[in-house]
Write a structure and sequence with these properties.
CATH topology: Rossmann fold
Distance between the termini: 16 Å
Mean pLDDT: 95
Radius of gyration: 17 Å
Structural class: alpha/beta
Strand content: 15-25%
Number of helices: 7
Number of domains: 1
Number of strands: 10
Largest sheet: 7 strands, parallel
Low-confidence stretches: none
Order of helices and strands: EHEHEEHEHEEHEHEHE
């Protein structure tokens, strides 16, 4: 895992986007197409803003959704589908396809089967993601399952994860935060050619330290990225504040 510290959040986002843009364009030049994974949340605002303005032939790009709450309609302000439609898809109208996680599907098993079939047919070139305050990766909260092979799974959200979503202002009360989500699994994320992480803010500092300097442990799910050959962790001064390996 490569760690890069930036002066502030906008610089972090621009650097993360630039790394991903280069990888996407390389894939298109080499194969004629690219597949990416997009995450959501406050950590991704600046990165996505830069990404959608890039000189990319989006008609050659298929995007996959990282995770979504179960039972939440895309009309809800916390819906990740709504987030991505407003912040990404609306600004990349020539995009070949966005494969969304329909968290409010009436048949969750069928939705998982659909998603798993779709992503099994492609190689992911770039996964854009973040790290949660509890060190989760996607919605794989501790103790995360490092062994399950299914690309998408239903997960239970722990209190720390739900508190983060409430604290970021996505829900009116903690009780409103769903208890479950459909999430991309750890093993599926690790199949990505490049993993580009945007992790700003001091509230993520402890999770960053555990992911970078601690042992690989499912109690700190993002620590598994130490085993991935091409991961970059983009930090600002706050999120890097507990690291001794970063100046």
């Amino acid at each position: 895992m490569r760690v890069e510290k930036h002066a502030n959040k906008p610089t972090l986002g621009a650097a993360a986007a630039a790394e991903g843009i280069a990888a996407i364009n390389e894939a298109i030049a080499t194969k004629g197409h690219a597949a990416i994974i997009l995450a959501t949340g406050a950590s991704q605002f600046e990165m996505i803003e830069v990404l959608v303005k890039a000189d990319i032939d989006w008609s050659c790009v298929t995007a996959f959704h990282l995770d979504e709450y179960t039972g939440l309609p895309d009309s809800h302000k916390a819906s990740f589908r709504r987030y991505l439609k407003e912040r990404f898809v609306a600004h990349a109208p020539s995009l070949k396809e966005f494969v969304f996680v329909e968290g409010d599907a009436t048949d969750t098993a069928a939705e998982l089967a659909r998603l798993n079939q779709r992503i099994a047919a492609v190689d992911i070139d770039v996964a854009f993601a973040g790290i949660g305050e509890n060190c989760h990766l996607a919605f794989n909260d501790p103790p995360a399952d490092f062994t399950i092979e299914d690309p998408y799974i239903v997960v239970n959200l722990d209190t720390a994860c739900r508190q983060q979503q409430f604290g970021e202002g996505w829900f009116e009360t903690l009780e409103d935060v769903p208890n479950q989500a459909i999430s991309m699994s750890i093993r599926q994320i690790l199949k990505s050619g490049h993993i580009v992480l945007s992790v700003p803010d001091e509230r993520k500092a402890e999770a960053v330290r555990d992911a970078v300097e601690g042992e690989v442990s499912n109690l700190h799910p993002a620590s598994i990225l130490q085993t991935h050959a091409n991961t970059t962790l983009h930090l600002d001064a706050g999120s890097a504040s507990l690291l001794y390996k970063v100046g």
